[in-house]
Design a protein that fits this description.
The chain is built from 19 helices and no strands. It is an all-alpha fold. Helix 6 packs across helix 18.
């Protein structure tokens, strides 16, 4: 557990140390994010097989892929992107730790890239990445975090208003690592239609879409029971953990949605268009996350899929606080960090998503 606490505490320590030598705040934050991401790659790469729910399972997959011929990769039950990556690494090295290092490096490169492109208070965002529990879950669901890298690229493409084919390409690559990423395509298409196209009666259409989506997730159990091609029992219990609808995280999302709406309505004339666009997009993604929370009451597998959407909290929350018309900002930042630090510590002391105790690979 000490290694996780040291990693967390190192964020303010690196910040104040570098700030003493470097007057440029953005350079300091960029450097802190880079250093701490490297630390997390080392922690994740050196972990033993007992650290993380699926680490041992992925070890078995690694050796199975190693024994497969190259022509057999695409018929293996694991998605072809992960199979190909594991095969290349096993061809270069028979050390499973190399696979852990590479997976962690790709995932944390994606997190660093997302933070740098979407958030001004980068150290705050990185602190949230750890304390909300995303670093812990990264050591549990490796394939999904590799897919998440490209999903985060999708979000950046939408925020930066890049060409549609860049968005489509990143969704395709994400699906090669975890097929559940196909869900993102529907979410992004709906966003393009509702928010980026100039439709008549846009507000009314958004209300209708929201109402229909809410009805669908409320009656999801009945709907899925009619679809024979879906594994009903796996969707019910596949996440191996449950998150209640009225959990603190769900309530927190509702509060931040309300605060975000306040900023968009009351302060829109004082906010740059790009910042307003980012806020609205993240709000939309978090609303989708809330809908999945409602659906997960019946099917807890949706809590695992929800990582694709809740991850934006690490940039959305700092941006909301940054754009709130209050000064000074630091008391709210400290309070937010304190709340998430408390929940992180409780999680670690309570079992830590199977990442406690930390042991090194033998």
């Amino acid at each position: 557990m000490v290694i996780y606490l040291a990693n967390l505490i190192s964020i303010p320590l690196w910040y104040f140390l570098l700030r003493f030598f470097q007057p440029n705040l953005q350079r300091v934050q960029n450097t802190v994010v880079a250093i701490v991401c490297v630390q997390m790659v080392v922690i994740a790469g050196l972990r033993g097989l007992t650290v993380g729910t699926d680490t041992m399972t992925y070890s078995d997959i690694f050796w199975s892929v190693d024994s497969l011929p190259w022509t057999g990769l695409f018929s293996y039950y694991i998605e072809p992107g992960y199979s190909l990556l594991a095969k290349i690494i096993s061809f270069l090295s028979k050390n499973y730790s190399v696979m852990l290092f590479v997976s962690a490096a790709i995932s944390l490169w994606g997190i660093r890239n997302f933070i740098n492109k979407t958030c001004k208070n980068k150290c705050f965002a990185l602190f949230l990445f750890i304390t909300i529990g995303y670093f812990s879950s990264m050591m549990n669901v490796m394939r999904q975090y590799l897919a998440l890298v490209f999903i985060l690229n999708v979000y950046v493409c939408v925020i930066k208003r890049d060409k549609w084919y860049k968005t489509a390409l990143n969704i395709l690559i994400a699906c090669l690592f975890h097929k559940s990423a196909i869900l993102i395509s529907a979410v992004i298409v709906i966003y393009y239609i509702l928010y980026l196209s100039e439709m008549k009666y846009a507000r009314q259409i958004k209300l209708i879409v929201m109402s229909v989506a809410l009805i669908l997730v409320v009656f999801l159990k009945q709907i899925i029971s009619l679809l024979s091609f879906l594994d009903y029992e796996y969707l019910q219990t596949g996440a191996a953990f449950e998150v209640g609808l009225f959990s603190p995280t769900f309530i927190m999302k509702l509060i931040f949605i309300a605060v975000c709406l306040y900023i968009e309505i009351k302060c829109k004339d004082k906010i740059a268009d790009d910042d307003l666009h980012l806020l609205r997009f993240f709000r939309y993604i978090i609303i989708v996350s809330c809908l999945l929370n409602i659906g997960s009451v019946s099917f807890n597998m949706l809590t695992r899929l929800n990582i694709y959407f809740t991850i934006v909290n690490i940039a959305w929350i700092p941006n909301i606080i940054e754009l709130l018309p209050i000064k000074p900002k630091w008391p709210m930042i400290i309070c937010t960090c304190a709340v998430f630090t408390a929940t992180y510590l409780l999680d670690l002391f309570g079992g830590g998503n199977d990442i406690v105790p930390y042991v090194f690979m033998k």
